[in-house]
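Entry 14. Ran structure prediction on the chain below.
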Amino acid sequence: MVLVGDHGGILIPELDRLRQGPGRLRGIRLLHTHLNSSPLNREDIMDLVFLRLDSVCVLNLDREGRPDKLQWAHLLPSNQQSEPYLIHGPTPWDRVDFDFSKSADALEKELDRGGALLETGSGQGRGLLVNVGTAPRKELEKSLEELSDLAKTAGLEIAGSMIQRVPKVNPRFILGKGKLSELEVMALQHSASLIIFDQELTPTQLRNIASITDRKVLDRTQLILDIFAQHATSKAGKLQVEMAQLKYTLPRLIKQDRALSRLTGGIGGRGPGETKLELDRRKIRDRIKRIKDDLDSLRKHRQNTRSRRQQEGVPVISLVGYTNAGKSTLLNTLTRSNILAEDKLFATLDPTSRRLRFPRDREVILTDTVGFIKDLPQDLREAFMATLEELSQADVLVHVADASHPELEEQVRAVEKILDALDLEEKPLVLALNKWDRLSPDQSELVLNIFPEGIPISALDKSTLEPLVDILEGLI
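Output, structure tokens:
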């Protein structure tokens, strides 16, 4: 099929869905003229990258307006070279000896081979992680590691990552156009179908990035919401997740015409991408209102349950802490329970309560809660207030911290900050330094110097929990 355009642009009809896979080229070669002797320019290369063209060619004209030199470029299968594309020519147009079809076929096979090397069978997709910020590079790297853990918890395969430290974040695209083109080529070379940003993207940034890439674009908040959606089991948990998702989606609705796209001079257009979710705003608001009513009913039910506990005079101890610190494992060991405890972020979303009998025949309720994480978005925190309400009724809080984590101090501070925001700073609090068995003697000494009030424990080893139980019994 040959499509002919004019000076204004070329209209590209909807393409075969097979051509929209993360490792596929578009199946289109773009040939255009420069009405002078200028070579392929930056806008031509941007079109090659963002539209995933098989190749882009420019035909120069001589002073008499006759065809002169041809120059062409195509993408490369790996980023071993300094540039992710190769430019050929200029060559006299009637002496070009290059098989464009064979070149495109060979390139797709190389891209497919590169993607196959990363295949692990998770079936959830492959993603690139991106962190853009003004903080020192070490901080950006640490934050990207946590994003990587979140992505793995969501079932994604990490194909690569990019960090860009900037003096000021680009309000339109978060990244500069040059870095965006690098990211797009990296995604093509690694057959990545998702691009995940460590920051929360504004509706404008999300819209702008989605307009120039066929990849699915997610930010940190969407990734956390996806994990919550996977792990929520109770009616309250599912309602809270749905409300947070709707609140996030409402200002970010994107309406796009999938049928046609316009390729203009430069990066103004793109090939047709995924259909974006089109939801009626009024319906979303109505649904949020219904969910709020349902959650209020569930809160009242929980309040009645807590009131009965108070009448019975049974004290409540709540486990709090950073996600994946070992709270559920500790609850299982103390109460001989078998609630879900996995080495994953946010394995626990719904509050779980079990009875615990102390050695002196004193009974308490031990409650497990959702794990905290730094920079938790406000909507998300509000949506899970029903879960965190358990904490306000607790007599004692046990802050379970992963003593072996390289960012122990930051995680402890993040939890304390959230407890302050919930007006719980006055509650009696015990710091349990979990996973103590993973520390060397030097590391143990260093941690106790930083947290002298901490109680070393190993949630998997019941014999290490006696000091913690004695302190809790004394407080009760």
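The chain is about 40% helix and 20% strand. Will compare against last week's run tomorrow.
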